Amino acid sequence: MAKHSITATVNGDEVDFTCSTEQTLLDxxxxxxxxxxxxxxxxxxxCGACTVIMNGRSINAxxxxxxxxxxxxxxxxxxxxxxxELHPLQQKFLDHAALQCGICTPGFINQAIAVLEKxxxxxxxxxxxxxxxxxxxxxxxxxxxxxxxDTAAEMRASK
Amino acid sequence: xxxxxxxxxxxxxxxxxVGNVTPRPDGVDKVTxxxxxxxxxxxxxxxYGRILRSPHAHAKILSIDTSAALALKGVKAVxxxxxxxxxxxxxxxxxxxxxxxxxxxxxVMAREKALYDxxxxxxxxxxxxxxxxxxxxxxxxxxxxLEHVLDPYAAxxxxxxxxxxxxxxxxxxxxxxxxxNLFRSLGKEQGDLEAGFAEADLVIEREFRSEPxxxxxxxxxxxxxxxxxxxxxxLWTSTQGHFVARALISKxxxxxxxxxxxxxxxxxxxxxxxxxxxxxxxxxxxSQMSGRPVRMVMTRSEVMRATGPTVGSYCKIKMGAKKDxxxxxxxxxxYYQAGAFKGSPVGRAADTFFxxxxxxxxxxxxxxxxxxxxxxxxxxxxxxxMATYAAESVINEMADQLGLDPIDMRLKNAVKxxxxxxxGTTHGRIGCIExxxxxxxxxxxxxxxGPNQGRGFAIGYWLHGxxxxxxxxxxxxxxxxxxxxxxxxxGGSRSSMRAMAAEELxxxxxxxxxxxxxxxxxxxxxxxxxxxxTYASGMAVVNCIREIIGKLCALAxxxxxxxxxxxxxxxxxxxxxxxxxxxIEPLSLQQLARMAPGAVGPIAGHSExxxxxxxxxxxxQISDVEIDPETGFVSPIRHTxxxxxxxxxxxxxxxxxxxxxxxxxxxxxxxxxYIYSDKGKLLNTGFLDYRMPVASDVPMIDxxxxxxxxxxxxxxxxxxxxxxxxxAPAAVxxxxxxxxxxxxxxxxxxxxxxxxALEANKTxxxxx
Lengths: 159, 768
Prior knowledge:
heterodimer, A: about 160 residues, Ubiquitin-like (UB roll), DNA polymerase, domain 1, 2 domains, five-stranded mixed β-sheet, 5 helices, 5 strands, B: about 775 residues, alpha+beta, Aldehyde Oxidoreductase, domain 4, 22 helices, 26 strands
């Protein structure tokens, strides 16, 4: 079984790890780097629970091999709050009760960050399509959509 | 502390925390990725478990050869059913919910036969995931494939392929003597059906079908078992009931219960699906065999193939009404797919059909039928949405034919306090009428509809659970309080526990820290299920806090040298009776907490109860949909849900339960179903093909919380988890039928089915 020696940046820190060819980025994050905040819901790219940001783009960590992130910059949920302060999206998820069980929350927050990066002022419909790759079975999406729209408004106002 | 807050609900009461929006104790951990779920536990030396599953729907297991798997380097244990004790078949009379260890043993690992595609047959534990996967491929199983049956009505007929040759039908008259897939029939009859139907001006008789749907929790089942040479077993698992998991594992594997400690991880959704055990005993046995911790995590495909969805159903129903809308009689038969083993929620079906209404002449018969599918599990109001779909569809059709408003017709027959349901529940204060009136008065109900649009309405009934509950609370030296409950927090219940405790104590919620205790730390707790958690654990927490307050008042009385009954508790302090005012200063919680260790020792409160009086609640939904006549695709465009919550302790999370339940119901009505090949193999085992609603499929979900406080709970709580699903599929299906003008009678109303109906009927709408 071939092994790969990889160097990448995760949440601003350089990391080195070896992985076998078939190991996904999700597996590497969770078992090699002990970063279990990225969640596994399906391993087939259908639920979005493992959404992370790679070089500024949101991706499903389960659909990428660990060996493919050589030299890449990865942002996971563990890096979203900075300097002891929650990211505005994290705070708004709490304020709007946009989570129940919370398993989909890390993926939604990363996806919302990516959506707002591209479009800081989405309509409700645009946002719903932007989040359509992330499954939530608890909330019916209402409060998630409200939390993200409210964050977008606040972030625009503070610019 | 914001002391001027008032409960925002309609149920009255002047509370500081109850009924208000409060920060969630587990919130920050969940938005930062810190919260630890089933798959987030890593133990030193941990092995990776994996299960080999049957590719056949129904097959005799002739032999299992594990030698090649055992010989693979890195494989530390291999097991089959031989590593799990057998248990005798339970004998009648059967309780309402059957938990037969004979069946549990066979569902955990197939014994004589594999009974469904995905049935566990053997398992391995190895030093890596990769080796474990390779090892299960090396296990050779010889099968004799048998004929299978998937449909519950067909399976109940003589001559159907038989799953269990030792299962004989219970509770039917005439009794069926040869072994049968029909396990039993439950139901009841009252009044005079014949006279009731004769009295009716309109009688409608219909058939309805619904497909099994999965709970669809996003976190696959995951656990880690660690066993010791002294016989001890520790289990970390994602479960809705770690005390129930302990009981089942202890019974199944014949291990003394005290030696098994189960810790509930954070749980990534359950909706009833995590109320039993699947791979947990396998992890325990593999750990015992290997001497190392063993982790088991299901893939999504394993979750779909091998864990219980809710039952699919076939229903025949007949109802009669007078011209003025008064219901005169109702009779319903429903067949439930129990899956491979008996135990579908037939009792709940029998209780559900006609319960929102006063109906003197009524009969229900509900058949629990084994078929070659995974054993059905609970799903949010188990058994109720299918029965409600049938009965509410017929009532809507009746209202239409009689020219009555659908809500007015329901109001004419609505149950109220003092009425008794068919299954024998005499209602206390209930809110059926208030919920119907709130729906009628909502702007949504009379809003105009556009072309290709339709509106549906339904109301649902659910009788909540109470049950065995144990909790404790500790006062710490600095005046803060910890609370331990034994019901896993699946949707924010710690928030509600904290609000009730802080309310009782009259202190800031930030001074109260709630947590979920393991099985070694509390008395028995039933599941987080049956919408019972905020009701029953909440009641136990209030008892604990009241015990602490009693002890603090006694401590103050001792200090003041006055009788204990001359001390009362108010706003976080012990206050002497009026006659002492001016001579004795009140003592705050903080002062008393500092004094306690020296004066009386640690102060704690405990409560062990069998919570009764949970009562019923009602939930109505108004659904608007738009049909694409070209494709048959149905878009929900507006949805309003109205629920009697008794009192909403955490209103945001009550709304969340309502919105989540409504959207699950939208999925059930429009898209979700199990698709099997002609060989009985499940074809849609992933989220791509098992199509649950995504954000772009649904609109905002408007909520109305009605508050008719439950007199049996200190804060008036009624459960809120389950009712939102009961009426949702019926309301959405009714909206589709209203839009296309065709009676459909089966779920899901997926695009091909709707398109076929449109083309067969060539309705005027299709020409628009």
